[in-house]
Design a protein that fits this description.
The complex is a heterodimer of chains A (224) and B (79).
Chain A (H helix, E strand, L loop, with lengths): L1 E6 L6 H11 L2 E6 L11 E4 L19 H11 L3 E5 L1 H8 L6 E3 L7 E9 L15 E8 L3 E3 L2 H9 L3 E5 L10 E5 L5 E4 L17 H13 L3
Parallel strand pairs in A: 1-2, 1-3, 3-4, 4-11
Antiparallel strand pairs in A: 5-8, 6-7, 6-9, 9-10, 10-11
Chain B lengths: L1 E8 L6 H12 L12 E6 L5 H16 L5 E7 L1
Antiparallel strand pairs in B: 1-2, 1-3
The chains are: A alpha/beta (224), B alpha+beta (79).
Chain lengths: 224, 79
């Protein structure tokens, strides 16, 4: 499975996600934000966490308009898988690949802690190795993670079973305790918690490893 | 030509920062402060000479980048 990890100025979780993908068996390439094209033959594009462009204007706003994102949007529109973690989730929303908005945490503080999550839908390449309603733990580390959407959008996400993860104890005021959502075709996932930080037994937990393992298995099933 | 864009949160979008400011003002002894909402002002220096053309450009800039129209409104002011 070939994965590309996009790097913006200010991304800081790019290597972590590359290591997690590599450990799961993917062939990983780093992709610079100024590249107009993605490397050929990618099965997955990952948009990592961090503070791209200093969170200037709005988190992920400037990164979402970087040259490489045109190619990422085209890749997603062509059915490719895209994973956005934390700042990456913000970028995917700003790029229009996922609905809603991510706003300043309700408590106004930067939250940095392990978060117990309930798995939502197992119906995606990202969540296929989990059971619905299973509890997993991924760390969160963010200041602007409150998922906000209007009633119609929330109804659509719930009705279409597109909520991938929910907080067991909401740390940021996200509506419906939503921690991660899928696109309509279920091939784009954005989530605020960091699965790549829960993918190594030496680093406090391995619940996140199954997200990457699931992606590798899905790619294998497709003959990639 | 100088222009100013005011970006504000839409009515109904929760603004905890505005609330924090409201509480702080109260603590400082300012009475009678109701709702507070915090927005941003973006100042631009444009080459355009024609105000109507500038206004159209700014509108496009707001929709393309300066405002997140999911949760924000914008108002353009040409100096």
């Amino acid at each position: 499975m070939r994965a590309g990890v996009v790097v913006f100025p200010g991304s800081n979780c790019d290597r972590d996600i590359a290591v997690a993908l590599g450990a799961a068996g993917a062939d990983v390439t780093m992709v610079w934000h100024k590249d107009a094209d993605l490397p050929a033959g990618l099965d997955l594009v990952a948009i990592p966490g961090g503070f791209s462009f200093g969170d200037y204007l709005r988190c992920g706003a400037i990164a979402a308009r970087a040259p490489v994102m045109r190619a990422v949007v085209a890749f997603a529109e062509g059915g490719g898988h895209v994973l956005g973690v934390c700042n990456g989730f913000q970028v995917l929303i700003e790029a229009g690949l996922l609905p809603g908005a991510l706003m300043r945490n309700a408590g106004l503080k930067f939250v940095c802690a392990p978060a117990a999550l309930g798995v939502g839908t197992p119906d995606s390449a990202f969540t296929r190795a989990y059971l619905r309603s299973e509890t997993v733990s991924f760390p969160v580390a963010h200041h602007d993670g409150a998922f906000i959407a209007d009633d119609d959008t929330l109804a659509m996400l719930e009705g279409e079973d597109r909520v991938a993860f929910r907080y067991r104890a909401n740390p940021n005021g996200s509506m419906n305790d939503i921690a991660g959502v899928l696109s309509a075709n279920r091939r784009v996932l954005g989530l605020m918690p960091h699965p790549e930080r829960a993918a190594d037994p030496a680093l406090g937990g391995t619940d996140g490893a199954r997200l990457f393992a699931g992606l590798i298995d899905a790619a294998a099933l497709q003959g990639a | 030509m100088k222009a100013r864009v005011h970006v504000t949160l839409k009515r109904g979008v929760l603004d905890p920062q505005g609330e924090a400011v409201r509480h702080a003002l109260g603590s400082l002894g300012f009475a009678g402060v109701g709702e507070v909402r915090v927005g941003k002002v973006i100042e631009l220096d444009l080459d355009a000479a024609d105000p109507e053309a500038a206004r159209a450009e700014l509108d496009a800039m707001c929709r393309a980048l300066l405002a997140n129209t999911v949760i924000e409104n914008y108002e353009v002011e040409i100096a």
